[in-house]
Each structure stands twice: as C-alpha cells, then as structure tokens.
Write a structure and sequence with these properties.
The complex is a heterodimer of chains A (287) and B (305). Chain A is built from twelve helices and ten strands. Chain A is of the alpha/beta class and 287 residues long. Chain B has 305 residues and is mainly α. Helices cover 73% and strands 3% of the residues of chain B. Chain B has helices at 2-32, 39-60, 65-92, 101-122, 152-174, 176-186, 188-193, 198-224, 231-246, 251-271, 277-291; strands at residues 127-128, 136-138, 149-151, 226-227. The chains are: A alpha/beta (287), B mainly alpha (305).
Chain lengths: 287, 305
C-alpha cells in the first residue's frame, strides 16, 4: 500500500463542542482507499465522537467531512446528510463498541436486513414482493446468497437460523462486521472490534479485516485499544489526545513519536524515556 | 347448545373486528413504543368514509353488491390510510425524541380533534345505513326452539379478516418492508445506520394500521347499521385491551386478544348481563395488567444492566 492511494475520506478542521466541552478540536486527517486507518488515543480522547460525526449522530460544530467513493466520481459531504442516507447513498457502514445486533432476528436475517435498500427497490416497495414477482424473488435470492457468503467467511453457516442474541460474544462481533459489509459500503468504520476478544479470536479478526481490505477493496477506519491489532494491520495511524491530533503516520512512526509516548505514559516534560520503554510500547495495550 | 353456538358466532365476528383494530395499536407500540390513542378515531373515520362511500355507490347506481363492497373497501382503506399518515406526520413525528409522555398527550389531543372534526362536519346525530347484505345460513333444525343463524355478512367479516391477517403476517415476516419494520422495532438507530429510512418505515406502519382499522370501520357500519362520531372511543379502548391481553407489540397476540375479547363480550352479554359487558372487558384489562403484564404472547422485557 502506497501513501499515494486516492483519498476516500477527508476530514478537515473537524471540531465538536458540547456546550463548553470541546470533544474534538480541529482534527484533520485523510483515510485513503484500500487502506486501514486506525484512530488511537487514551480513553476520552474523542475517538468515538469522530465516528458519531461521520455517521450522522452528531452534527459537527465546525468542519467538513468529504467522502469520495471510488467508483462513482462524485463526493458526499457527510456532515450535511441525514443519518440513513449516509449508509444508503454514501456507503458508510459502522459497528459499535457495544454490540448492536438485532438480537431477536435470526443470524441470516440480520444480514439480509442490511440489504434492505436494494431489496426495496427490486420489490417496488414490497408490492412486487407481495405478488411474488420474478424480479423480486431473484433479488431476494441474491441477497440470501450474499448473506451466505458472509456467513461462510465468518464461519457461522451452521448457526444461520439461530437468534443473533444467542451467539457467543466473539461470533456476535464477527456477525456485526459481516452485517456492515452486507450494506456494500465503501468505508467501514469499526469501533473497537477487538474489545473483549481472546488472542485467538483477535488474530482471526485481523485476518478478516485484512481480507476485507484486500478482496473488497474498501477503506477501513478503525478505533482500537488493542495495539496488537492496530500495529499489525493498519497502514496509517492517527493519534488523538484530549480531542486534538498529536501524531499521524505509519504504525512505526507513531509508536516512536515522543508526543504519543507522553500521552500514553504521561512522562514528565523534558524527561527522556529509556529506549526499551518506548520500543516496547506498541505491544502493551494502554488501559 | 344452540344458544351457545349462536353466541360463539357473534363473538368470533366481534372478535375479528377488534382484532383488526388491535393490530394498529400493537404495531405502533412495537415500533415507536407509544400508545396511539387516536387509533380508535381513525377507525371511526374509516366507518364514516365507508358510509359516505355506500351512499355514493347508491347515487352512482352501482347495485352489484360485490363490486360496491369492494370499491367502498378500497376507497375507505385508501382515505383512512391518508388520515393515519397525516396524524403521524403532524402529531407524532415532530415529538419523536422528546420526553416519553409528549406523543401520548399529543395522541389524546389528536383523538379529540378527530372526534370533534367529525362531529362538526357530519353532525352529532347517529347515522343509519339500511342493511345491504341480507340473508344467511340456517344452522339449526327447522323445528328447534332457538334458531341459529350465520348471516352472510358474518361470513364475509370473518373471511376478510382472516385473509387480511394472513396477508399481513406475510408482509411482516417475508417482505423487505416487514424485515425493516422488525429491525426498526428492535433498534431504530442501528436500522438507520444500515440505510433503512426509519421515518418512512414508521409512516408505513401508521398507514397499514389505519387501513386495517378502515376495514373494521366498514364492517361495523355494515354489521350494526348505525354509527356516530363517538364509536371510536369505546371500540378503540376495547381493541387496546385486546392488544394488551394478547401481549402488546405482538402481532399474533393482537389477533388472539381481539378474538378473546370478542368472545368474552358476546358470552357475558348472553349469559350474564348486557349492561355490564364493558365492565367485563375492562376488568380483563385490569386483571391482565396485574397478573400478566406481558400478555398472553408477549415476551417479557428484560432490563439489561
């Protein structure tokens, strides 16, 4: 992955204030196509707030969020769009820190509901679905096929008919990613996908994310505390502290950046860290 | 025995009507968690539109009964659906995300508005409609003391209701619209993040509920032959009781609850006292709320910690 890949998401001067509290202060960065961009930072740095601005939960106080999907030439200004259009038209999908599956629906249905808009169009807003028209049954079959494909990828084919809420935790995490992928996004935002996973599951997750980037050619935006995930798979890392960007670059550059080390370990001004501490930082998750 | 069978027939017919209205309550509750107290009045509007429709058929000289019934049914469903849509758009949508009581109060207001609007526009007097569907099946032996009759109209009511409910269940379980509806019901924000136009889904819910209420209104107009601007209140309350009895938020529950309430009302009137039939029905509401708040088919809401 070269740094010259075309931009997918350009965040310019993003500022989010809640009353007197400045959650994000003048953040600018670029996430490129076919790259995994990680946003890291200590707790309360404003990482999830960035996601909330991207997906229409918050209207940013200041700033511009431009999404340039690879294939249709146009661009979207996310901060001006209604919530559901960000997913439908711009193609931004998102997962949550706390899992938000449709617990009462089956695993398969969770994946099919994510393809709602395509099915609605094919079924002429359910009219054709009622009449059982050909075009609709074909679209429905394709939707199920895509869902089956993802079930296969996340190794849940055997549990397709389970209620999603009954799956084990790790499987729920993977299902959430699969569901987001079923919307066929061009940018996938993952909010702490490795939280609560054991090392084996977390390694599986890395593989899945690298696969998604490689085979589907979409951009990923990742918030993560688990440094083994961040350092192994990201192409580009943005570090936030107290809402302000403090460093940006490749994982290696960032992990050796004195400002980053200070933010995480709280070293006193002017006091140089011993090299072994600085070098060992990436593998120790800061909590 | 004959008397019992007659009451059973009456009860099922009544239950079918309550069931149709109850679906509107239960769906709206399921999707946005509010009791739409104006729903009973939507049903009353449906009844009035049907009445006007039948008069119109008379004026136009359409005397072939199935055609007239079908036209009025469509007309009534369509126009009532518009009312349902408008009520949601005007009174509930602006209040979404407001505190929980706000849409409820707004619903009560909407109910009063609709009642008074019809009272002013149509007059406060009871409106009669001469019987249109005559005849029926004689079910008892010719020499029996008590004649059990199953009128054609009762057959039509039950058949139409069963058909609509089957179709409706199909929409909810099999079509993308129904899937979106269930998703919205479980997690509105998440559904929206997957690209589901939540506002439209909620609107559709109101439209569908109103259309079903219109069918109930039409059938009541035919069945009883008299309507006035106030019928929506008591029928709405009973349908609400049916929805609670079946488990509010559950679609089969609303149908079952409607049937049970219809049967209870018919049997109570027949064997105990007709004056106290409403007392019987609303006692059920109290008992259900005390002993089984989730209703017969409702799932308990588990509070996550």
């Amino acid at each position: 992955m070269t740094a010259a890949a075309p931009p997918l998401l350009t965040v310019e001067h993003l500022t989010m204030r809640f009353g007197g509290l400045v959650a994000i202060n003048d953040l600018s960065f670029t996430a490129r196509q076919r790259q995994i961009t990680a946003i890291i930072g200590p707790n309360g740095a404003g990482k999830t707030t960035v996601f909330n601005c991207l997906t229409g939960f918050y209207k940013p106080s200041v700033g511009r969020l431009t999404l340039t999907p690879p294939n249709n030439g146009g661009c979207f200004l996310l901060e001006r769009m209604e919530g559901f259009r960000i997913a439908k038209d711009a193609g931004v999908a998102r997962t949550f820190q706390n899992i938000r599956l449709f617990a009462g629906m089956s695993v398969l249905e969770n994946l099919v509901v994510a393809q709602h808009n395509r099915l609605m169009r094919a079924s002429a807003y359910s009219v054709a679905g009622l009449l059982g028209l050909n075009r609709y049954t074909r679209a429905e079959r394709q939707a199920v096929e895509l869902a089956r494909y993802w079930l296969d990828r996340i190794e849940l084919t055997g549990q397709a008919d389970w209620a999603a809420g009954n799956l084990p935790y790790g499987s729920q995490r993977r299902l959430e990613i699969a569901r987001a992928m079923c919307t066929e996004p061009c940018l996938l935002c993952l909010d702490e996908p490795a939280a609560g996973l054991n090392p084996r599951e977390s390694a599986q997750l890395n593989e899945l994310l690298l696969d998604i980037r490689g085979q589907h050619g979409i951009g990923l935006l990742l918030i993560e505390h688990d440094m083994s995930v961040v350092m192994q798979i990201s192409d580009h890392v943005v570090v936030l502290d107290h809402g302000a960007p403090i460093a940006e670059g490749t994982p290696d550059m960032v992990s050796n950046d004195p400002a980053v080390i200070r933010a995480y370990l709280g070293a006193a001004e002017g006091e140089a860290l011993p090299p072994d501490v600085a070098g060992g930082l990436p593998t120790a998750p800061p909590c | 025995m004959d008397y019992f069978i007659q009451q059973l027939i009456n009860g099922v017919t009544l239950g079918a009507i309550y069931g149709l209205i109850a679906i509107g309550y239960t769906m709206v509750y399921g999707i946005i968690g509010m009791i739409n107290f104006a729903h009973g009045d939507i049903y009353m509007i449906g009844a009035f539109i049907s009445l006007v429709g039948f008069l119109l058929m008379g004026v136009l000289g359409i005397s072939y009964l199935p055609l007239a019934l079908f036209t009025v049914l469509l007309l009534s469903m369509l126009l009532t659906a518009v009312y349902g849509w408008a009520v949601e758009r005007i009174a509930y949508r602006p209040l979404r995300g407001s505190f929980k009581l706000a849409p409820l109060i707004s619903a009560i207001g909407m109910s009063i508005v609709l009642e008074n609007y019809v009272q002013v526009a149509q007059g406060a007097r009871v409106k009669p409609l001469p019987p249109i569907v005559h005849g029926g099946f004689e079910l008892s032996a010719a020499n029996a003391d008590y004649h059990v009759t199953l009128s054609y109209l009762q057959v039509v009511i039950v058949l139409v209701t069963v058909g609509l409910m089957a179709g409706f269940t199909y929409v909810i379980t099999r079509t993308p619209l129904g899937r979106a509806q269930r998703a919205t019901e479980q997690d509105m924000t998440m559904a929206s993040l997957l690209g589901v136009n939540v506002d439209r889904v909620v609107s559709t819910t109101f439209v569908l509920g109103a259309a079903l209420a219109a069918v109930a209104g039409l059938m009541v107009t035919l069945y009883y032959g008299v309507i006035d601007f106030y019928i929506g209140f008591i029928a709405g309350m009973k349908a609400f009781t049916a929805a609670v009895l079946g488990g509010i938020g559950s679609l089969p529950g609303a149908m079952l609850g409607g049937l049970l309430i219809g049967l209870i009302e018919a049997f109570w009137s027949a064997y105990f006292s007709i004056e106290y039939k409403d007392v019987a029905v609303f006692s059920i509401l109290v008992l259900v709320l005390i002993f089984r708040p989730t209703g017969l088919l409702g799932r308990p809401e588990i509070e996550k910690v």
